[in-house]
Amino acid sequence: METKPPPTSGPRPTDSVERPDTTTTAVRAPEPDSQKPRDDQTEEVEVPKLRKWVAILTLVISTALVALCAEAMVGSIDAITSGGAVSRTFAGLILLPILGNAAEHAAAVRVAIKDKMFLSLGVCLGSSMQISLLIIPFIVKLGWILGKGEMNLAFDGFQ
Fold it and tell me: How many alpha carbons fall within 13 Å on the CB side of residue 88?
């Protein structure tokens, strides 16, 4: 068999090969039609199902009930700690925060079961951020106003 030389019309390894332009060109977005309404313009306005005074009254009543329940829970610490099985420190640092945020914890677990982990983490971390960014500095400043010099933001490792 006789081998044929390659055709001369194609590029050879020693020749310079011109490649097609590989630069990308910007694609312009189509200009919006002023005739078409946008999605946010076509949404219907929700009509409230409750009157304003009913909503405010419901908020006031639920706030009062939560305050009463919180007072009863904090007042029951003496009954729990008087037996000696649970210390006041444990009840104040561990039990009260867990029981106080039980609704948040239940909501976070319920959302996590539905496989919405970002929302679950948001619920869990939201309360901690509120405490650390608002409540603690407020309590420290209130302590300074009331003349409690030992209240500051210098926490030890346990705190």
Answer: 5
Cα–Cα nearest to 104, from 91, 123, 90, 85: 123
The answer to whether 95 and 85 have CB atoms below 8 angstroms apart is no
Alpha-carbon distances of 117 from 86, 101, 105, 110, rounded to whole Å: 34, 19, 13, 10
Dump pLDDT digits (tens) for 55-68.
999 999 999 998 89
pLDDT tens readout for residues 112-151: 999 998 998 888 888 778 777 888 888 888 888 888 777 7
Using alpha carbons, list the distances in angstroms from residue 96 to 86, 90, 100: 12, 9, 6
Task: Give the count of alpha carbons within 13 A of 125, CB side only.
Answer: 6
Give the position of tokens 């677990």.
109
Contact 151, 135 (CB under 8 A): no
The model's pTM is: 0.43
